[in-house]
Write a structure and sequence with these properties.
The longest helix has 19 residues, at about 175-195. It is built from 8 helices and 15 strands. The chain is α/β, with parallel strands linked by helices. Strand 13 (about 255-260) and strand 14 form a beta hairpin. The chain starts with a strand and ends with a strand. The chain has helices spanning about 15-25, 40-50, 75-90, 145, 165-170, 175-195, 220-225, 230-240; strands at about 1-5, 30-35, 55-60, 90-95, 100, 105-110, 125-130, 135-140, 150-155, 160, 200-205, 245-250, 255-260, 265, 280. The protein is globular, with a radius of gyration of 19 Å. It has one domain: Purple Acid Phosphatase, chain A, domain 2, CATH 3.60.21. Helix 2 (about 40-50) runs parallel beside helix 3 and helix 6 packs parallel to helix 8.
């Protein structure tokens, strides 16, 4: 089975490469998009339409940018709208249900983060900006409550940095609450397909394994913002099933490959402007 997998299209930023990439996908059995197509629903559909002529099984998971909303909208409700867009353009949204093709089970969802990947080895003091208030905290003392701010002034660098999820993700969930929904769904989907298949493919947008987390000991911003890259809890569930053979993710724009046991692991994302598909055989 030939799988063509891609992530982080971020339309229209990668528009120059997109059509060229699609031209290479014609003989694929399965097309996978691992999230972050576009925050704009019209652009989201524009991208999916580009794949219409391909006869492969087409699968997609959501990315955090896909569910960005304005303050009057709800990100969780937007998922339902995106499912409809996927259906009418021949894509199956794995966030809603798994798929089986030729004894291979495909499971996956957006994933999320729980701050476990953060680097907390710095004693630097930063200012957290949250709920119209600000307070000082040292990085090595940061709690989950501090990481939920996602908006900081780095005193030693004299600059502010924001993780845009805090601006554009609007829903009733805390990060851990939403992650727990994804973990529960992943367990359920793996349990559903496992008795029926020989191999399992897991597709996430957020990073599920520490091997794809890159640390920069002297970079305070990088270390703090690693908190929002994903969660090892996702990987624990996926690797708990012996039929797992392929794991893919995106999100951090650093493409990579790791072999962990008998599982091929791909980070499908690339730097902006360098969009390219991965061709994987399983």
């Amino acid at each position: 089975m030939k799988i063509c997998a891609i992530s982080d299209i971020h339309y229209p930023h990668n528009e120059p490469n997109l059509m060229k990439d699609i031209e290479q996908m014609g003989d694929s059995d399965v097309i996978v998009i691992a999230g972050d197509i576009s925050h704009n629903i019209f652009d989201y559909e524009t991208v999916l339409k580009r794949f219409n002529r391909l006869k492969a099984l087409k699968l997609v998971v959501l990315g955090n940018h896909d569910i960005y909303c304005n303050k009057k909208e709800d990100s969780f409700e937007k998922i339902g709208t995106l499912e409809i867009i996927c259906q009418r353009n021949g894509f199956h949204l794995l966030d809603k249900s798994p798929v089986i093709k030729d004894n291979v089970g495909f499971v996956g969802n957006i994933g999320w983060y729980d701050y476990q990947f953060a680097q907390k080895d710095s004693n630097a003091e930063i200012v957290a900006l949250k709920d119209e208030r600000s307070y000082k905290v040292r990085i090595n003392n940061m709690t989950d409550e501090d990481f939920s701010a996602k908006n900081y002034f780095f005193k030693s660098l004299r600059k502010s940095v924001v993780w845009n999820d805090v601006r554009y993700i609007n829903w009733r969930f805390s990060d851990k609450e939403f992650l727990n929904l994804q973990l529960e769904k992943l367990r359920k989907d793996i349990d559903e397909v496992s008795p029926k298949v020989k191999k399992i493919v897991y597709i996430s947008h957020h990073i599920p394994i520490k091997e794809f987390i890159y640390e920069k000991p002297n970079d305070e911003v990088w270390g703090v913002f690693n908190a929002y890259q994903g969660s090892p809890e996702l990987g624990k569930i996926a690797f708990s099933n012996p039929k797992l053979r392929l794991l893919t993710c995106g999100h951090n724009h650093i493409s990579d490959y790791k072999k962990i046991g008998n599982v091929d692991c791909y980070n499908l994302s690339n730097e902006f402007g360098n969009l390219k598909p991965f061709f994987i055989y399983i």
